[in-house]
Amino acid sequence: MTTLSTYKGISPTLGNKVYIADSCRLVGDIRIGADSSIWHMVAARGDVNHIVIGERTNVQDGTVLHVTRKSASNPEGFPLLIGDDVTIGHMCMLHGCQLGNRILVGMGAIIMDGAVVQDDVFIGAGTLVPPNKTLESGYLYVGNPMVQKRPLSDGERAFLKQSAINYVELKDEYLQEAGEE
């Protein structure tokens, strides 16, 4: 299986030391920053709009990344924009939303079109972020639909960055094992 595929002449582009698991499928206009990792069974389609993934960001197993096409009622559509030092847990669905920096998206969370997640946010496992919602920096969000639960503790804020660091170290081990380091 080809992990990276071209769509309408545009192929995914990877920064330095990016790890892409063999079982992923990335199609079209996808840009991935340095030291990021895309884990097993991730599907990402940058076909009707673009996907940008920042540096030191990890997208874990079974996650689906997609976008919304441009239209007369929404001339820009909704690209998928993910910042730096973001951890996206297993089996998440991110669709045409925008995530800032130092965010943890818990396993099975769904973030829908037009949603904006500011920096330093923790989204609990199974949380549903409805379309066009803004999640304010510095809080834990949980539920279906999501609610702002409480401010993050100092330890939780530190963990947001540490989680990203943990995955940079893990992807480096995978790259070394494959002889790509």
Automatic annotation (TrEMBL):
Query: According to the lineage, what is the superkingdom?
Result: Bacteria
Q: Give GO MF terms, alphabetically.
A: transferase activity
Keyword presence, Transferase? yes
Transferase among keywords? yes
Q: Which InterPro entries match?
A: LbH_gamma_CA-like, Transf_Hexapept/Carb_Anhydrase, Trimer_LpxA-like_sf
> What does the UniProt keyword field contain?
Transferase
Protein name according to UniProt: Carbonic anhydrase or acetyltransferase, isoleucine patch superfamily
Q: Which organism is it from?
A: Marisediminitalea aggregata
